[in-house]
Amino acid sequence: MLLVLLAGLAAFGLRGANADDNGARLSGSVREIPEAAAALAAGRPQATIVRRTLSPAESAETIEFEVALNMRNFSELQARLNRGERIAPEEMAAKYWPTEADYEKVADWLTARGFTITLEGSDRLAIFARGPVGQVSRAFQASFARVLFENAEYTSAVSAPSVPTALASAILGVNGLQPHLRPHKHLAPLQPASTTGNGPPFLPGQIAHAYNADALAATGSAQKIGIVIDTFPATSDLTSFWSACGVSQSLSRMEFIQVVSGTLPAPSGEETLDVEWSSSIASGGGVRVYATKDLSYVHIDQAYEKIISDLPGQPELQEVSLSYGLGETYAASSQVQTDAQYFASLASAGVTVFVSSGDGGSSPGPSGHDHTGPVQVETPASDPNVTAVGGTSLYVDAGTGDVTSETAWYGSGGGASIYFVRPDWQTGPGVPAGTMRLVPDVAAAADSSTGAFIVLNGHGYTVGGTSWSAPTWAGFCALINQARANAGLSPVGLLGPQIYPLLGSGVFRDILSGSNGPGGVYDAGAGYDLCTGLGAPGMAALLPALVPPSEDSPALPPWALGLLALLLFALAGISLARKRTS
Q1: Cα–Cα dist 298/301, whole Å
Q2: How does pLDDT run along the chain (582 residues), one tens digit per residue?
Q3: Which domains does the chain have, with CATH numbers?
Q4: Distances (CA, A) of 335 to 181, 183, 289, 328
Q5: What does the DSSP 8-state code read for residue 473?
C-alpha cells in the first residue's frame, strides 16, 4: 500500500464507528483548526477559528463537496502501474474502480437528504454535490465555524463528518468541507520585460537549445497537452507570444474546456505561462485547457474527472501539466488519497502527469511562495503516479546561448513525503536511505531572476517558478511521445519507472550546486538530490533512450542503449557547433 496512515486508520483514511450509533467518523476529511490564541502561540502562519457561531445567512450559504469512494485492490493496481502496464477502462471498472452498487448506495443516501448532485463520474470515484451549510452540518454531523486564513474568512468545518455505518466501507472521505484549504499557483511575481538576445528572459527556442532539444526532428505532432487551471489565457496573448518568439503554432490546435459553470476570472499569468510555453516547446502539437473557475479542490477534482472521461475520445491527450500545490502538512489526508486515485487512473491510461514541485523550497508556507512552513513537500507533486518537476537557475552564454552553468534554485520544492511510501523504482546513485517517496523527480529552469518571457494582456513580462519548469517538461514529453508513436510504440506513460534506471547514463545534466532553502536544508549533489531530482534533461540523449527498438528490431542491452544515447548526444553537439560556425 502506498499510503502511510495513522494508527487505526482503515482503508484510505476512514476511521471506525463513533461511540454513538449514528455512523462512522471520517477523520481524514478535515484538518484540525486551532483557536486564534493557540495559533498565535504556535508561531507559524495557519488557519484559525475566529467565531464558532454562524449567522443564519452563513448557515444558508451553499457549499460544494465531494464524496470520494474507495477504489478496490489499489495495491495490486499500483504494482502493475510500477511495471509500466496499461489497463483498459473495462478492466479498471471490473477490478479497481468502486462498484456500481456502492456508488448507487451513496448517491441514494445523498439524494434522500436533499442534496443536489452536480456530477457523477463515469469511473465512480466520486459524487459531487452541494447544499446549504446547515444541511451539510446536520447530515454529516459536522460542526462549522468562521475561519481566518491568509487574510480572508471562510465558513469551514471544524469537526470531522460522519456517515452511516452501512456506507462506511465504501466511502474514502468527504472533501471540500474546509474551503479555506486549496492549492496555490507556483508562479513567481511578474516583472515587465521584452525579448532580448539569449536571455534572460528566456524564449522557448533558447530553452530548447539549452536542453539540447532544438536539433530534434520531433515537434509534438499528434500530441495534446492537458492543462488544469482556473481560467483561460487570452488568445490574442497567445498569438502575440508565438509571433514574438518565432514559434509556428496555431489557435486551431488550442482547445478550451470550461469544467465548472460560472464566470471565469481574468487571465493573471499562470494560465498564460502554462499554455504559451507548452504549446511552444511542442509547437507541432495541441493544448487542451480545463478551466475550473478557481482552485478549490472540489473543482480541480471535477477537472480530473473530465480528463478521465475525455480520454477515450481524445487519444492524443497523453500529457498533463499541473502548476499548483499545497504543503502536505496543511492538506486533509482524504483529499491527498482521493487525488491519488485520480492519478492512478490517469497512469493506467498511459497519461504522463507533470506537477510543479513548489516555490517554497524545502519549507513551503501556506501560500506556497515562502519558506515559513515546516520541512515538507507539496501535494500533488508527492504522488508517485506523477512526475514532480523542480527548478534550477540557468545561465547561458550571451553570444551562443550555450549553457555556462546550472544550479539548484532556492525555491525548488523538495524533500520526503509523509503520505506516500517510496516506489520501488525510485532508486539509484544519490537517492538517500529511507522509505518515503522523494520529491522532485526532475528539474528545469524556474528561477524568476533568470526567468521566462510571456505575453499577458498585450505586454511582455518575465516570470518564474516551477510553474515554468512543469509545462516545459510536458512539452518535452510530447516530443518523446511523438517519437514513440512514429516507432510504433505506446506513450511513455508513468515516467518514474522509465527514467530512474537512466540515472548516471548521461541523459540528464547533473546539478551539482545550490540548495532549496535558507541555510541549505537540502543541497544539490552528484546523482539524485532533493533539489533537482535526477537533474535537467539532455533531450538529444533522453529521447532516444525512451524510444527503444520495436519488437521487430534486435533488442539492445541497457548498457548499449546508454552508449547509444551518449553517442547521439555528442553528434547533436557537433551538428549544432557546425551550424554556429557556418
Answers
A1: 5
A2: 444 433 333 333 333 333 334 489 999 999 999 876 555 545 566 899 999 999 999 999 999 999 999 999 999 999 999 999 999 999 999 999 999 999 999 999 999 999 999 999 899 999 999 999 999 999 999 999 999 998 899 999 999 999 999 999 999 999 999 999 999 999 877 787 767 677 689 999 999 999 999 999 999 999 999 999 999 999 999 999 999 999 999 999 999 999 999 999 999 999 999 999 999 999 999 999 999 999 999 999 999 999 999 999 999 999 999 999 999 999 999 999 999 999 999 999 999 999 999 999 999 998 888 888 999 999 999 999 999 999 999 999 999 999 999 999 999 999 999 999 999 999 999 999 999 999 999 999 999 999 999 999 999 999 999 999 999 999 999 999 999 999 999 999 999 999 999 999 999 999 999 999 876 689 999 999 999 999 999 999 999 999 987 654 444 444 455 555 555 555 545 444 444 444
A3: 24-175 (no CATH), 184-552 (3.40.50.200)
A4: 10, 11, 23, 10
A5: H
**DSSP H helical ranges for 191-248:** 204-210, 235-245
Q: Are 514 and 409 in contact (CB under 8 A)?
A: yes
* Single-letter residue type at 334: S
Residues 6+ apart with CB under 8 A from 219: 282, 283, 284, 285, 479, 482
**Distance between CA atoms of 515 and 408, rounded to whole angstroms?**
6
Cα–Cα distance measured from residue 129 to residue 123, given in angstroms and rounded to the nearest whole number? 16
Is residue 393 within 8 Å of residue 65, measured between CB atoms? no
DSSP designation for 582: -
Three cell numbers, residue 305: 474527472
How many helices (H) and strands (E) the chain has is answered by 16, 27
Reference 469, options 360, 269, 321; nearest CA is 321
Task: Using alpha carbons, select from 377, 231, 267, 353 the residue that is nearest to residue 304.
Answer: 353
